[in-house]
Structures
1.
Amino acid sequence: MNPGLLSVDDALAQMLSRARPLADVEDVPTLEATGRVLARAQRSTMDVPPLDNSAMDGYAVRVADAQKPLRVAQRIMAGSVGKPLEPGTAARIFTGAPIPPGADAVVMQEHTKADGDRVTINRPPQPGEWIRRVASDIAKGAEILAAGKRLAPQDTGLAASVGIRTLPVYRRLRLGLFFTGDELVMPGEPLAPGRIYNSNRFTLRGLAAAFDCEVRDYGIVPDSLEATREVLRRAARECDVVVTSGGVSVGEGDFVKPAVEAEGQLLMWRIAMKPGRPLAFGNVGSAFFIGLPGNPVSSFVTFLIFVRPFLLKTQGVTDIAPRAIAARADFDWPEPDPRREFLRARWNGEGGLELYPTQDSAVLTSTAWADGLIDNPAAHAIRKGENVRFLPYSELYR
Ligand code: AMP
Ligand code: MG
């Protein structure tokens, strides 16, 4: 590897070794907990289902009785409880209704013939058929949700299914964003020659929202030491983590490095990755600072590779690593970079991956076209048909 460059894994390990879950935990209504990170494991205080119940609309019977026509002695709807089943009788029963004591099977109504208050069973049932057993889903005392999980809609549904009304979650992470560059203007403003639109603001704001951060957006900051220091001080006071784009190279007009050094501590890294390279990591007061390169593809990729896991760990998420897929490359990549590459690729119709035609890190189009990133080892030429390590956006946004 090029001397002076830090590997992606080493940089990430250094960052993660400093990250700690936020100390503050709050109880929120289960109804509003989707997207939040669970701070303590949740156990069920009840059996699910709480009683044996019917998995079908039909008749609850004694298997031993089912050869002869049975008198239908009761009707049991979901939400009601039946009486003990007398020998020689059947109970009309509906899905979810409790099995009456004495019954040992349910016959689905399609296999019966009703005639007045009598029912004939056309197909003899097996013992236990169409009965959902008490506690077969969840036993009382079992853990239903692990600490450190970001709650999906089905998780809050599961919590509610055992009667949990509020959930302890980590406080939302306050993420500060600002964008350095005298050339930046916002869409809607006139684009004078030499100016460019501040696309990073949109990409990074969207990413921050995808990870359920509470965003403080400090907007465009001009390329001056004073302006950069001032917004940095303010953002550090108000946020847990401050992420910026641009100004991390070490050219004239790059003020992030001296500003962070003046206000806090900074590590400046050149990372052995493409796109990416310059990355700043440090702290200002109690806030962490991560300075991403200004190049739109680089800031997008470095957010997903470095900021994402750092934010997740700070948010209290325990399962951080994106799960990669081994996927077939339907292309050749004969001239790899000596650095580890994150190539923009997408699924074709044949279950393989194709590559965006230009991997130039200034081409933001590639990120929108793609379904994810191929994590290609340094200097590795890809040959058509080989399996590559694919990080789908669905994993990187998780
Ligand atoms: P820098 O890292 O500040 O040297 O910026 C690298 C490249 O990214 C330059 O071409 C900048 O114009 C561009 N750039 C910087 N910030 C942004 C931004 N917020 N949105 C879009 N492009 C940017
Ligand atoms: Mg700049």
2.
Amino acid sequence: MQTIADAAAALEGRERILVFTGAGISTESGIPDFRGPNGVWKTEDPKNFTLRHYLDDEQFRRARWKGWFGDDRPTFRPNQAHKAVVDLWESGRMVGCVTQNIDGLHVAGGLPAPAIAEVHGNSRGIICVEHGHSHTADHIRSRWLAGDLDPHCECGSILKSTVVLFGEELPPAAASRARTFSLGADAAIAVGSTISVFPAADYLLWVADRGLPLIILNMGPTDADEMATVRLDGKAGDLLPGLVSALRARPA
Ligand code: NAD
């Protein structure tokens, strides 16, 4: 059986580690993943999360704005795994973090902007679908609170959060930063992801394709297990802090 010590040994001498995160890093913060045992796809139809459906279904848009601006929106906080990513960055051995998550918890946990590529967007910003005009959440929220339950842009276009829906391109700036991280990496750690969503997974797999070490930390199987140098099954909040402290005890 492989251990954290094996993962730390595989990363010996590596100073530009790519960290690739998925929904599983945030389940310990209380946010369900998509494909895990309690994942969103157990109760929701993925077809509802397409851009087409969002544009066509006013009731769906109203429900999304209510979920975002309504009183019952829960507050989520970064967990030990998000903090471990910051620790690794501060140790100087990380090229950057490519996250598929839209929850903003890496940023909330203190990872600075140059260290992160949110390739599926985030729920901090609002844009108009037609022209990409950007709006602040505060402004749209005040309109929503005043009774505008399906707010549109001044240009007439439907508004949406900057979360990437199925059928949308990745945000160009984040995609470009992710590519730079991936091509500059000398190893990779994947955390809490089935590594099954493309093109995001390419940023991770390009590193493994170059014969560089790939560590996978996940509860349950992933689509890239056969490519892993070391694969550990367990909770991100246990495994990643353990690995980062082993790396800090064993400088590059
Ligand atoms: P996924 O649901 O396909 O896979 C998550 C994996 O993490 C599963 O294998 C699950 O067993 C594992 N997991 C769950 N809890 C874990 C834990 N505590 N420690 C370690 N592993 C754990 O998610 P994905 O690979 O990120 O891809 C699906 C899509 O999900 C992405 O496009 C992402 O945008 C979206 N998503 C994001 C969030 C979020 O922002 N938090 C939540 C749900 C879905």
